[in-house]
Amino acid sequence: MPVSVSPQDVPQPRSFLRNLVPTLLFMLLCGIVGPIFLVMGLVVPEDEPDTGWLLPTGIGITVLDVVIALAIANGRTAKQQKMYALRTRGRRVRGRVLSFEQTGVRVNDQPMIIIRLMIEGGDITPFEAQARCVVPEIHIPLLHAGELPILIDPETDEWEIDWDSAQPVSPVTMRKPAEDRPAADRLAELDELLRKDLVSRDEYDAARARILDEL
After folding, report:
1. Do the Cβ atoms of 120 and 93 come closer than 8 Å?
2. Is 104 left (phi over 0), alpha (psi -120 to 50) or beta?
3. Of 4, 15, 41, which Cα lies nearest the Cα of 124?
4. pLDDT tens digits for the chain (215 residues)?
5. Nearest Cα to 83, choosing from 23, 160, 156, 139?
6. Is 42 exposed, middle or buried (0-12, 13-18, 19+ CB in 10 A)?
7. Using CA atoms, how far apart are residues 22 and 29, in angstroms rounded to an integer?
8. Dihedral through CA 137, CA 138, CA 140, CA 142, nearest 10?
9. CA–CA separation, 207 vs 201, rounded Å?
10. Could you tell me if 110 and 135 are in contact, meaning their C-beta atoms sit under 8 angstroms apart?
11. Please, what's the b/e burial string for 138-171 (b: 16 or more CB within 10 A of its CB; e: otherwise)?
């Protein structure tokens, strides 16, 4: 049975204004040259040579900063509201990982990965879905384990991977039982985990020894 999410202790999403103010300040700080040119264009005498470009350039850069901040704040607010709705009226089901691949893009030093899932559980009609998302490195072993926690709104069918409730576990301890897969497959997977630095050398040696002992 899918588990309902309790609305208790779920923080309210930030308002658009609360998201906009810090974002706008950050954009203006990064594009500080725009406000500087704007102020200089207003205070420098009009008859001063080679200064006519200051005001239009300052306006253009400042407006661009504001537009970018508005777009970022709007996207952030929409995402927070969606997650709040899922956490207050959504249900937890499972997402069976069908495949995943690296995109080569990293955000805040975390990899962006394309994940293909089969979402299923309880009375939810199973359906296939795909997500392109930034996955914290600590959660990558869950992709190898083959299952992710999912929050789904039964009214709208909107869903999100619930990384907050995911319990990071060593990939060595999350593999399927020995009888489910050939030893060669498990050894190959173990080699791949070591190559990607998802297990330590000690974990690798211990797991490899267990697999070989089963032969």
Report:
1. yes
2. left
3. 4
4. 444 445 455 678 889 999 999 999 999 999 899 999 988 888 888 777 788 888 899 999 999 999 999 999 999 999 888 888 888 888 888 899 999 888 888 888 888 999 999 998 877 888 999 989 888 888 888 888 788 889 888 777 788 888 877 766 555 544 444 445 677 877 887 787 777 766 677 777 877 887 787 77
5. 160
6. exposed
7. 10
8. -170
9. 10
10. yes
11. ebbbbbbbeebbbbbbeeeeebbbbbeebeeeeb
Residue where the block lists tokens 């709040």: 84
In whole angstroms, what is the distance from residue 119 CA to residue 103 CA?
Answer: 22
Polymer length of the chain: 215
Query: With contact defined as beta carbons under 8 Å apart, do 76 and 6 qualify?
Result: no
At 96, list the tokens.
């069976």
